[in-house]
Specification:
This protein has 3 domains: 85 residues, Rossmann fold; 61 residues, ATP-grasp fold, A domain (Dna Ligase, domain 1), CATH 3.30.1490; 185 residues, 2-Layer Sandwich (D-amino Acid Aminotransferase, Chain A, domain 1), CATH 3.30.470. 30% of the residues lie in helices and 27% in strands. The chain has 12 helices and 17 strands. The strands form 3 sheets. Strands 9, 10, 11, 12, 13, 14, 15, 16 and 17 form a 9-stranded antiparallel sheet that branches. Strand 11 and strand 12 form a beta hairpin. It binds adenosine-5'-diphosphate and magnesium ion. This is N5-carboxyaminoimidazole ribonucleotide synthase. Pathway: Purine metabolism; IMP biosynthesis via de novo pathway; 5-amino-1-(5-phospho-D-ribosyl)imidazole-4-carboxylate from 5-amino-1-(5-phospho-D-ribosyl)imidazole (N5-CAIR route): step 1/2.
Length: 377
Amino acid sequence: MNFNKLKFGSTIGIIGGGQLGKMMAQSAQKMGYKVIVLDPDPACPCQYVAHEFINAEYDNQESLEQLGELSDVITYEFENISADQLKTLVSKYNIPQGYQAIQLLQDRLTEKQTLQKANCKIAPFVQLSKTDDLNIAIETIGYPFIVKTRFGGYDGKGQILVNSASDIDEAKALLEKQECVAEQYLQLEKEVSLTVTIGNDNQITYFPLQENEHQNQILFKTIVPARTEHEKEAEARNEVDKIIKNIHFVGTFTVEFFIDGENRLYVNEIAPRPHNSGHYSIEACDFSQFDTHILAITGQKLPEQIELLKPAIMMNLLGKDLDLLEDQFSEHAEWHVHIYGKTSRKPNRKMGHLTVLTTDIDKCEQALLDKFEGRSQ
Ligand code: ADP
Ligand code: MG
C-alpha cells in the first residue's frame, strides 16, 4: 500500500496525550511537523509539546472531527479508541493505520482468535462470558490460570491469577463486571518483545529483540540485546511475519512474547503503537521507535535496518521509584532520564524512565538493581 507523503510543515494529529504521544510529538517536531493532540486531561504530558491541544474525551465525535480537519494525518498513542468511531474517521481523513488493527487488538478474545488463525503459538485459553464458564477453564486448562478482561486492561489491571478453588470467587466478581478470557498461567523463563515498523509499500523494519522483566505485571526493566540464544530473534521475527499477514499494520507496533522453561516461544499480546519496551531505542539506536513511526505515517522511506549503537538497559520510573531516586539524578550523568510531566504522582504510575548505554550489561544491571533495591513492592 502507498499513501500520502507529507512535507515538513504539515500537521500530525495524535489521539492521546500521554508519554507515548509526547515522545511521538518530539520525533515529529524534530522532522519539522506540527502536532495537535486530543486528550481529556488538560494537564497531560503532551501539554508541553503540542502546538495545539484539543481538550476532549476520546469518544467525542465532534472533537475527533475537529482534529481531522486541522490535521494532515491522524495517528494514536493507545488502542482503546472506539473502532467504530475510528472507522468513520478513516472514511473522511488521512489515517494510514486504518481501524482494523485497533478493532482486532483492543479485544483480547479477537486478538487471540487472530493469533490462532495466523498459526502463532499462544497459551491455551477459553472465552468466559458467564461465571459458569469458569468450570470450563478449570476442566480444559486447569489451575493455575489467569482471568483477563477482554477490554481495557493494561499494566496487569483487570487480571486475576487463579491458583486454586479459593481464588474462584474473586474471578467471578471480575467476570460479573466484564466479559473475560482465561489463559493458562505459564512458568516463565523470560519475557521478550519485538518492536517493528511498517511503512509505505509495506516496507518493514525490525528493532532488536528486547528482554523484559515485569514486577507486579508492570514493566520493570528492558535489556537489549535480549540475553537469549541467537535463534530466538529469528523465531520472534517469524511469528511477527505470520501476524502481519493477518493484520494490516502501518507504523510502529510491538509483539510481546513469553519463553517457558522448555524454551518454547509464545505470543502474549500485540500493541498496535509504540511500546514501553522500545523506549531504549531513543538513545541506543540510530532511529527510535517514535522516529520510524513518524516516518511511516508521513509516507517516508524507513531505514532498512535499525542499528543498535550500544547495548542498553531501560528502567521504568514509577512514582515510588521517583520518590527513591530523584535526588540522585544529578549524580548520574550516565542515566538518560526522561520525565513525562504527569502532575499527580502515584506509587505504581509510570512517571518516567531512564536508559543507560553500556558495554557491560551484567555489571550495569547489578548497579541499577542496587539503586532500585529499596523500592516498595
Ligand atoms: P497487559 O496488557 O497488562 O500488559 P499482559 O497480558 O501482557 O497484560 O500481562 C502482563 C504481565 O503479566 C505479562 O507481561 C506477564 O509478566 C504476566 N502474565 C500475563 N499472562 C501470563 C501468563 N499466561 N503466564 C504467565 N505470566 C503472565
Ligand atoms: Mg503486556
